[in-house]
Amino acid sequence: MYNKKYVIPLILIFLVGFFTPYWYNAMAGTFGYVPELKEPSGECVEDKDWMAANHMLLLQEWRTQAIRHGAEGGRIYHSFTTGEEYHASTNTCWSCHEGKEEFCDQCHDYIGIHPECWDCHYTPNIEKPHYSGIEELSKYFS
Amino acid sequence: MIGVIFGVIVPYIAVAIFVVGVVYRIVNWANSPVPLKIPTTGGQQRSLPFIKRTVYDRFDSPYTWWETAGRMLLEIFLFRSLLKNTRYYLDRVSQKDARWLWLFGILFHYSLLLVLIRHSRFFLEPVPSFVEMLSEIESFKGVFIPSVYISGLAIVAALFLLWFRRIFLSRERTLSLPSDHFALILLLAITISGNLMRYFFKADLFAVKELLMSLMSFNIGHAVEVAETIEPIFYVHFALASFLLAYFPFSKLMHAGGVLFSPTRNMPNDNRARRHVNPWDPADVPLLAKGITVAGRTYKSKKLDWETYYEMYTDQLQEIEEANYKIVPEEL
Amino acid sequence: MEEMPEKIEIRQKFPSWREMLKPVKEFEEGRLSYLSLPKQVDSEFFKMPFGDVERDFDDLKLPENWKEIFLEALKETLEKNRSFKLFMDICVRCGACADKCHYYIGTGDPKNMPVARAELIRSIYRRYFTPAGKLFGEWAGARELTEDVLKELYYYFNQCSLCRRCSLFCPYGIDTAEIVWWVRRILSRIGLNQRFMTISIEASSRTGNHLGLLPGGMYGAIQQGLEELKDYTGFDLHTYINKKGADVLFVAPSADYFATPHWYVMLGYLLLFNELEEKYGLTITWSTYASEGGNFGTFHSYEAAQLLNSKIYKEAERLGVSFIIGGECGHMWRDKHQFINTMNQPPKHEEWKKFWEDPDLGELAEGLRGVRFDSYASGEHGWIHILEFVAALLEHKKITVDKSRNDKWIATYHDPCNVARGMGLIEEPRYVLRNVMNHFYDMPEHTIKDKTYCCGAGGGMLADEIMDLRMRGVMPRMMAVRHVYRKYGVNILLTPCAIDKAQFPPALEYWKIPIEVGGPMEMVGNALVMTAFGEKPEDRQFDLRGEPLREEEGEEGE
After folding, report:
1. Is the pLDDT of residue C38 over 80?
2. What's the predicted TM-score (pTM) here?
3. C17-30+49-192 in CATH: which number?
4. What is the domain partition of chain C in residue ranges?
5. B84: which chain C residues are within 8 Å (Cβ-Cβ)?
6. Which 245-284 residues of chain B touch chain C by CB within 8 A?
7. Which residue in B78, B189, C146, C450 is deepest, having the highest Cβ count within 10 Å?
């Protein structure tokens, strides 16, 4: 083999680069790590495995129901799995799941995504801002 | 069953072929020597001190190690040779700069890089913050749920553009072999299935990462268990990607490694300062004078050294000697 | 030159990929070079395998086991040369090179695209050396080696002038010249050589130069040059040949001894050498043994190139010179810049070693102190281009020039491909030309410097039987010349390349551009004031063509 001076480092760089997950995970001590998920109490609105993949589609549908049909009493969701009726609202979720950190973040952090849902939406972990109506405003503008 | 085959067996085989194949190809290239120092000089050589060299000349006609390294880096990261591209217009018998190929190439390769970096989230634990940040930066938020990754769409667009070149431009159509179309179609299939999976046909990504982490730690029992639960759309994407890995070392896609070996780019233009040694030629006696053997017969050319030459043309050379090696105009 | 094509029609064809894999059966008249005769390739001094048979293109008379020999040679090439192996593997067929080739532009023949040219051999490589090709055959772009394919290889690999323009634009630096060079070597192993280049190789291996000039002939030619110079300048000039103990060995392409317009360049050299000797005492000698700077072996094979260029360092050693100056030639400088010191051991004699320890011309001639070449050259190589040499002399004000003597010329400069892309000599000639003449205009940017177009006759393509190809190949260059001819009224095309100087006069005539061809050294010779001989700037009456310097006639050329 010629040009060993360059070729061997090149091969090493390739191998080290390709096997990054090995040394990275080993260094972080997370080799083969899979987080344990805390099962919430109660039945989910749909099948657990289906929810794992498709919960965003469900939430999207609920959002549409809430925005478009909410006033007409359209916020009723018929479960495909159980056939029962649910209120199409995140409050339905929060009634079993304890909170964002205990549940949502477990998976989301594991695969490193940050859905922007909670930029606006309420979760049980956050203390709701206290809003006391028009008097509140007058504090700032009087 | 699909899960076991495409989720466990195929990826192991594909990765093995990829790693062994790439190393084999690199070693295979390195096993051939470079007989001559043949850089393509695209600019002014290093020369007399008063001959100015611009910074372009330094990279296009490198003299030092650093300049050569710079040329290689620019070649690899900016595709500088393609950036020089022109197009000849026969009807106008002139040429114009034509940088479309460069644009499509850059678009594809950098999108691919971003996509690969984003995919590292499925292999690394914890996910590095720069990977998360990169995804944050390149995503279009609020237009769709989930947010739209630019690189994911750009790579499909770039692949289509590159493919359209091969289909609609007559010269490129003539040049393209089935393997060229195949590589593009394969990449298109992978990227389109990936996009579909992200935006429409959902798969359980937690399980995907669980599968990959188990595969990496050879926890095969668990991998098989998880593999069976993942949605089929994932296996479309995953099996194609595995196939790409296995196909990579034996196809033109190896240009990724080959570009580093190209003797016309990775050698400095310093022939006159430093001698290049050809490993298979000691350069003492011309090889033809030693004789070349073809099909068992040796063909030996007579060497014209000075003694032979003097013998052959003694009279004329002696006349020159008598003139004291000096030529003057003949007296008329 | 009687075989000039009457009319050129560029018919572009775009066959399908399957069509491209099939060997062509029809070979265009005027593009197919003749095969070598036994007297060229079975000569005592240049013996090629199976060279003893007289071949005809219709009946190749191949050796019985030609296929094995061919594949064996291909395998050997892959093992001996990384660039060849790499270039077989990594092409992605992006098409960036396609319209960069002057032969493709000129002929429209799809197989003249550099990538398609390389595919001709790549398809055979795939069939016999890669698993995909063995398995999928045609669908992997592979094809069998047959006699028809062989003919096609010969036909197309002798339609490349090794100018490397495609290599410049290739994103991986795939150098078609490299592929062509090594395929020609493989073809020569089964007895297929191109006649034109082997005529010169054989002559050079026997006499020391391509023209087959014997020592007396060369002596006489230079002597005639000195006589002409006496007529033009009135000075008694002299020069040395085969002189031991001279300071410098000068090596020019042999065309300079005879051909026109090379001849004027030759006169330019002689004036410069006399001025330097008379003024500073720098002695420069010619050599009859190393009388050829060019190297047609570089068109043929590694071995042939080595056979021809091995003489020069030996001669330098025998004469005891300190360094070597090379004349105006294109491929010569690819050979002399990139090949010669790898193919041969550089000289190791005392004078050489001593000079290169501190390469200041002052060590050889006190008056020239300050002129140095160590910023880019060393004793491991030892060659200086004549234009670099002149540029250094001009910069250090060692020679006096009178620009106005060249006022009747409006010049443009053609970069020879090998000098531009195999060496990087781009600004030196322009520096010299701007210093010796007032009217100098470059051609459009896309056609000069590193992107220069080939003259269409390099790489062994100067043969008369392929005149059609030559006139087509030169078309892009001629269009650029026509542009400056119309825009600036250019009346001379200067080029430091012997093959260019042979190709351009018929090409300019064919493309109806009424301008002259010359070399930069002719302009230097015109402008050079022979101060050592007591010449004043206004003294010179004739230029090196023997025409009056200051009359306005002949402005438009002939």
Report:
1. yes
2. 0.90
3. 1.10.1060
4. 17-30+49-192, 201-397, 403-533
5. 168-169, 451
6. 250-252, 254-255, 258-259, 261-265, 269-278, 280-281, 283-284
7. C450
